[in-house]
Every structure is written in C-alpha cells, then in structure tokens.
Design brief:
39% strand; alpha+beta; seven-stranded antiparallel β-sheet; 145 residues; 30% helix; globular
C-alpha cells in the first residue's frame, strides 16, 4: 500500500486548524484544491464526526471523518472511492509548536483500480512534497483571513 507522511507548520492555533479541517460548510470546495463542488456532498454529521463525499472527476472518495479536539487528531477513513479501497485514509495530528501548530499528516492508499495503481505509484515518490505544498497553501490562506 502506498504511504506518505509530512509535517507543515502554521501560525494558526491547533483549534483553528481543527476547525478548518472539519468545516463541512458550503464553502469547503473553495478552500481545498482537491475538492470541486460537483464532487462534494455532506451525507451526515454529528459531534466529532462527519460522512462526506469529496474530490474531483479524477478522484473522489466517500469518507468518514472522526476527530478529537482534546487529543488534536483527525482521522479520515475511505468508505468508497473510484480509486481507493478499504484501508485507505488520512491521519492528522495537531501539535502546539512555538507560535502555532505543527500539522503532521500520514496517508495510506489501497488502490482498487488501474488509475488508482498509477496514482498510488507516485505517492511514495512525490506525495509528501505535493500534498505538503497544497496543505501549506490552504493554511496560508486561512492565516490571511
């Protein structure tokens, strides 16, 4: 299974990062580069969890988010996808650091399609760098708001 991990620092407080990661409002697709409005739907949500579909025409996932504000963790488990199978997901750990937060991200993918195998082959090579830059961009925009 392809895996990657990376850490990004932000001046946002851990609670602000958690709020950004778990904001499933109508503007979510405007803040996250890998989500378009056509592939975004909130199916259900409650305190500490949400089930959503998000992505793009190239790759979408129905996911279950669970989070623990006190522990500073967010887990995202893939329920269905055109690319990824069971065992796929993301783990975010938010750690107070100096003037803000270190956001540690671990991602694992279990390809279930030919296209998933192609994308999956790139994850260990460039995944951390590309996804880290995308997350850093999202965080910088949030810092500027």
């Amino acid at each position: 299974m392809p895996k990657t991990q990376f850490t990004v620092h932000t001046s946002l407080a851990p609670g602000d990062v958690l709020a950004l990661l778990t904001d499933f409002g109508p503007d979510r697709a405007q803040h996250w580069p890998n989500i378009d409005e056509a592939h975004y739907q909130v199916h259900d949500q409650g305190p500490g969890w949400a089930e959503v579909t998000e992505g793009t025409a190239m790759g979408w996932e129905r996911e279950r988010y669970t989070w623990d504000a006190e522990a500073g963790t967010v887990a995202i488990d893939t329920l269905d996808s055109n690319l990824w199978g069971p065992g796929s997901g993301w783990r975010y750990t938010l750690t107070p650091a100096g003037d803000g937060t270190d956001v540690h991200v671990a991602m694992v993918r279990a390809p279930k399609s030919f296209q998933g195998r192609i994308v999956g082959a790139l994850i260990p090579v460039v995944g951390g760098r590309v996804l880290g830059k995308q997350l850093q961009s999202v965080l910088r925009k949030a810092e500027a708001r």
